[in-house]
Amino acid sequence: MSWPPAPTLLAPLAPWFEAARRDLPWRAGDLDGPHPDPYAVLVSELMLQQTQVATVIPYFTRWMERFPTAASLEEADEDAVHKAWEGLGYYRRARFLKAAAGRIAAEGWPGNLEGLAGLPGLGPYTAAAVGSIAFQWPVPALDGNAFRVLARLLLIEGDPKTRAGDLRAWLAPALAAHGPSRLTQALMELGATVCAPAPACGSCPLAEACGARLAGRTAEIPHVAKRPAPKASALWLVAMEAEGHMLLHAPAASGLLAGLWRWPTLDAEATPAGSAASAASALIAWPGWTQVYTHRREAVSPLYLRLEARFEAAEGLRWVPVGDLSRLPLGKRDQRLRDLLAIPGQAPLEAPDPTLLIENLSKA
Ligand code: SF4
Question: Domains in the chain, ordered, with CATH?
Fold first, then answer.
């Protein structure tokens, strides 16, 4: 590793950050001492995993009003925690945050990086981010933005993540020299606002020393691996109402969708649409949409079916009073159907036979 010393190379970042930093609700004003509220740093870092700053801000503000301390989050009802996270996605972060808060409320904050990394939901990156920003430990936190900046600055070929160990060792003295919280946030901020995928090198404090800029290779560094095409599927998303109740899947205890209530779905290929003429006015539809996830795309066709009487639902399904619907945490796709229920739909031209829907959702 023949990179120039980090304290010198990254020195322009500190004054740049003082002048250019965004005013974010979790940021401390004074970056020379420990953060006054490490719990706020923890909440922000968990929320910022996989989610943009602009999306996180209103969630963070509401969350801190609702659960202002680790102890208050630990005591909160699980449905209320998921409800506060509703719409942010990757819901296991909410469960991790609650579990980490429980540990902190009971045992206090860990005193070192290993202890932080042992809290639920904190991988090496988040532990280092909390350690440097909340406690001023000189532990480098490399997120996607930091990797991009450093790959360009140091002209790293290939995937910079494979050099994570080297980069951390190189970066640590710069954190000690310029302040761990300040430099960590400055690096992330530069990646988010200036050294973006399409970089604005003209506004960059590191431009004079940047290897990729000097070599005219900012468009090809860092190397980005192509993702496999997402799998496609199609489904009916069904809101079924009877006797003042709606039929929903109760939350799973674990897995990606743990903690979330879900509308029943039926695979559209296995449950083909026929003429909906026989369904009468009790069956309503709205225009469908494509729900995009990291690895798959769903063509969603939303339906509402009103029945005269409830039936004995299949395992895992529950009839929930209509009045409870607004307080239950739902994922993004299912929220969308809940919102649609408030606006008029229309009789569908095509839909699965309602008898088939009921058969699929009844106890065998
Ligand atoms: S000069 Fe351009 S490519 Fe280099 S770090 Fe700055 S913004 Fe990124």
Answer: 6-214 (1.10.340.30), 231-361 (3.90.79.10)
